[in-house]
Design brief:
- Chains A, B: An RNase that has 5'-3' exonuclease and possibly endonuclease activity. Involved in maturation of rRNA and in some organisms also mRNA maturation and/or decay.
- Chains A, B: Keywords: Calcium, Cytoplasm, Endonuclease, Exonuclease, Hydrolase, Metal-binding, Nuclease, RNA-binding, rRNA processing, Zinc.
- Chains A, B: Its EC number is 3.1.-.-.
- Chains A, B: InterPro entries: Metallo-B-lactamas, RibonucZ/Hydroxyglut_hydro, RMMBL, RNase_J, RNase_J_2, RNase_J_b_CASP, RNase_J_bac, RNase_J_C.
- Chains A, B: GO terms for molecular function: 5'-3' RNA exonuclease activity; RNA binding; RNA endonuclease activity; zinc ion binding.
- Two copies of one chain form a homodimer.
- By secondary structure, chain A is α/β, with parallel strands linked by helices.
- Chain A folds into three domains: about 280 residues, Ribonuclease Z/Hydroxyacylglutathione hydrolase-like (Metallo-beta-lactamase, Chain A, 4-Layer Sandwich); about 150 residues, Metallo-hydrolase/oxidoreductase (Rossmann fold); about 90 residues, Ubiquitin-like (UB roll) (Roll).
- Helix content of chain A is about 30%, strand content about 25%.
- The first copy, chain A, has 16 helices and 25 strands.
- Chain A has an eight-stranded mixed β-sheet. A six-stranded mixed β-sheet of chain A has the order 8-9-10-11-12-18.
- In chain A, a hairpin with a 2-residue loop joins strand 19 and strand 20.
- In chain A, helix 5 crosses helix 12.
């Protein structure tokens, strides 16, 4: 790194998502008039985001620098890295760069959203750098729970940035494609300005198991099972799917694929040669019904207890075509993602009710993580040996712990930065400055609406969800304020009215009391005041008799 | 057991809660005209029970047999065993039997609910049987995460029932009170008709650690900490609290107790001699502010991320008197209960933002379970050697696995029964029959209302929470169906109206279209049809433009 050339412009990196949260990964790399976007992921809604379908990053910073936005580079094909692409491309029709499999998954997604013609897709070959404006970018192969992931080396006029992508070390990966440690080391030798590295598993000591290690547990289960086997797994976990398909061949079971994303991903992976699977081994639904139990393997989605998934519908016995039967063994081969445990446990209980046996990661080693543990994170830090370090992909505590880890391997605390979404880190002649850069946040997608549900709307939903609502309708004569119709009081989600008819009757009496005041006060009280007063009285009343705070909406019409 | 005496009546056991779920523990033991109730616990609401405060068992079966209900026996003082007592006692003013500490906690609860005079409290001494009608009952000491727990031996004319309570084996309990294996064995030798045993941890292999084992980890943390230490723990976990208090003495830290239940439980336990703690070691709030950091220990509730707890308020920096500072170490010394993970992780992130270090069970051994693991469960089965076995306290999968475990240690499958709440098992002359006995379910407590929120009301709350609501008001002339006022369309929790004013405008136009039809149709269409038609049209419209399904409530007033 030559720090004396003062003609160079500052290099700016602005994370727009994925720092302080898991998911929603997106990062801006900016030099002069060029903005490169790395990843465009979604996040699945948290419990208090009522009614929200997905969450995407806030593109405001990109909008403010619209002309600069030149390209999108994707590290791998998980939803938390590609899920926001349709929303991004709709606004910014920029070219997309990714490896073969990743690109195929992106293509599928864009086709679904009818956006394929809005962009150009470029295949990234690891170890084959490509140029975007002032940047020379190279994909560096990493291992992860989806094939074809890469980290990125981004050569800029201010020095080289390394973005780890999501990675783990796996010395015996299923597809034989190891993390390209030599290439990370090559850049480390040359000098790396800054490393941005995945923090997801910084709380876990040691090393991840190899994907191959769990194969033995699977084989044992296949050996002992005489009934049908149903494996639920993320459709993107093609390594896992490959292992299971190998076992199906070994134990002479035919395979039925269930779930839309499972079918799609398996098709794409087979077309591109990422899955080794004999088409004759696939069972149709009709064959499935005829096969003896010990010849059946089903591969399905729904390992997170997703309400509409095939597995959930089977568990609750409401699937139109498939059902669980006594003697089935269901393997949930994924992590219980925090927030989903209750849903998953619920499915498991129902599967047991149907007479099945269920095996999951909490009782057997049938899952390994795709994210590096502490020792692997240290190795990345030591191989890349960056001047500056910014932990990414993690909640706040992960970022703090990753920063501490970096110090353990010798980085100076002054050179490690905890950034949050919207912060920028600017590199100029070997120095780094962190600032608050952009207003950024999360954008909610609800049905077809993007961004039209904000915190205010969610607050109302939460209020409505807590104690329901009470509607009051009253039509009165404008002149004399006499009742023409009502007061009618109806409630929803508030109380089963039959059990306590006195509640709404009491409410009516109160409204009539307020009306008397309204009639008496004349000009001292207008209709707005009257409605406010109704709300206030009812609020007090419901609090007193029920300790509830429903949403109260009085509608007074004067004619 | 003498199975030839035909003068004996059948003995019936009916679980009313705790089978097929964790929490809500309650069981009826019935012989002739006597019903003995074992435990009366609550459950905290699951995510989809919107706005519900707590859940209690359905007492219908007791109501139908009101005259028979003679006494309540409590195994230990956890909320899932005592939390429904006020609701039970309000309806059934029966005497309560429990050990000293348990009884003191029950007394406190009844006093709060102003129900103390409605019942009589009897102290149970382990190994001192007492009689209730045809039953002779003996408390058998067990270890658990609260002191003074017992299992029960219930001698009946049909034989002896053993109820394990919640138990674990702990060879080195903090209070020196071991599980009374000899006494369980004594009954086992004499012959036990049926064992009802805790299934909570049947998925966990081996043995639980002793409570004392985690003391070393705690000591290590105390040794290394130079800042303040804040331990968050269940207020009922007096063993844990005792260990921490011993360490406070050892490391010369003064103790500040925070959180209502913490203060109450510590007071009760000290009064009864269940906590060894020098009153001079307690710090007042004023002292707390003055003490040097390395002299401070805070014991607080909120280890589950409860929104109103002291710890949560400190984490979000909204506590009026206490705050977190750089260098604090917070120890969350309890399990992450499924369903609470997101809330807990959220707190942890905020604590890190405040500059604190957080230690929890997922990074260090600072928690042990109070429920027996598989080897301990086997030991209970082997010592008690029952003729019949019924797994209790567990979700469905736990019950299935516990049943299988019982078969592993030699019980015959025909003698192991999976019961669900409301099923009965009847013993008559050595035989056992399982039947569906009672309609039972869960009763929701919301504020002051008990049972007035049912599934129907919850469904409305869920609907309202998903996409909010849209209200339509229209006043028309009865005779000519001309508009006198409106249509007005307002929404809550549906959409931020400013972002898409065309949505509600579009809705208004649609309503006017429907009105035209209403005006044209005359008697063919009444006002009810009109409102239905408005709802139908709007539903279709919102689905089309936004893919949302708000709650639509049209109010048409004809005057």
């Amino acid at each position: 790194m030559n720090s004396t050339d003062t003609s160079r412009l500052p290099l700016k990196v602005v994370p727009l998502g994925g720092l302080g949260e898991i998911g929603l990964n997106m990062m801006v790399v900016e030099y002069g008039d060029t903005i490169l976007v790395v990843d465009a992921g979604l996040m699945f809604p948290e419990e208090d985001m009522l009614g929200i379908d997905i969450v995407i990053p806030d593109f405001t910073y990109l909008r403010e620098n619209r002309d600069k936005v030149k390209a999108l580079v994707i590290t791998h094909g998980h939803e938390d890295h590609i899920g926001a692409i349709p929303f991004l491309i709709r606004e910014f029709p920029i070219p997309i760069y990714a490896t073969r499999l990743t690109l195929a998954l992106v293509e599928e997604k864009l086709r679904e959203h009818k956006l394929l013609e809005r962009t150009v897709l470029h295949t990234v070959q690891p170890r084959h750098p490509f140029r975007i404006g002032p940047f020379e970018i190279e994909g560096i192969r990493v291992c992860h729970s989806i094939p074809d992931g890469v980290g990125l080396a981004i050569r800029t006029p201010q020095g080289v940035l390394i973005h780890s992508g999501d990675f783990k070390l796996d010395q015996t990966p299923i597809d034989g494609r190891r993390l390209d440690l030599a290439r990370f080391g090559h850049y480390g030798e040359q000098g790396v300005l800054a490393l941005f590295s995945d923090s997801t598993n910084v709380e876990r000591e040691g090393y991840t198991l190899s994907e191959r290690d769990i194969g033995q547990t699977f084989r044992q289960i296949f050996r002992e099972c005489s009934g049908r086997i149903i494996v639920a797994v993320f459709a993107s976990n093609l390594h896992r799917i490959q292992q299971v398909l190998h076992l199906a061949r070994e134990f002479d079971r035919k395979v039925f694929f269930s779930g839309k994303s499972m079918v799609t991903n398996v098709r794409i992976a087979r077309e591109l040669g990422y899955l080794d699977f004999d088409p004759d081994s696939e069972a149709t639904l009709a064959e499935l019904q005829r096969l003896e139990d010990h010849r059946v393997l089903m591969l399905t989605t729904g390992s997170q207890g997703e309400p509409m998934s095939a597995l959930t519908r089977m568990a609750f016995n409401v699937h139109r075509k498939l059902s669980i039967k006594e003697g089935d063994t269901i393997i949930l081969s994924s992590k219980f993602i925090p927030g989903n445990e209750r849903a998953i446990q619920n499915i498991i209980n129902h599967l047991y009710r149907q007479g099945a046996e269920v095996i999951h990661e909490q009782v057997k080693d049938i899952h390994v993580s795709g994210h590096a543990y502490r020792e692997e994170l240290k190795m990345m830090l030591n191989v890349v040996r960056p001047t500056y370090f910014v932990p990414i992909h993690g909640e706040y505590r992960h970022l703090v712990k990753h920063k501490k880890l970096a110090q353990q391997v010798g980085l100076s605390p002054q050179n490690c930065f905890i950034l949050e979404n919207g912060d920028s880190i600017t590199f100029l002649n070997g120095r780094a400055i962190v600032e608050k850069q952009a207003e950024t946040g999360r954008v909610f997608v609800d049905g077809k609406g993007v961004g039209d549900v904000c915190d205010l709307v969610l607050r109302d939903r939460r209020h409505l969800s807590e104690d329901g609502m009470v509607l009051v309708t009253l039509v009165i004569n404008k002149e004399h304020r006499e009742v023409l119709n009502g007061p009618d009081v109806v409630s929803r989600g508030f109380i089963l009215e039959e059990t306590k008819p006195e509640i709404l009757d009491g409410a009516k009496c109160l409204i009539l009391d307020v009306l008397e005041r309204y009639q008496a006060e004349g000009e001292m009280m207008d209709c707005g005041d009257f409605q406010l007063e109704i709300r206030r009285e009812l609020k007090r009343f419901f609090q007193k008799v029920l300790e509830r705070r429903p949403f109260i909406y009085p509608i007074v019409v004067e004619i």
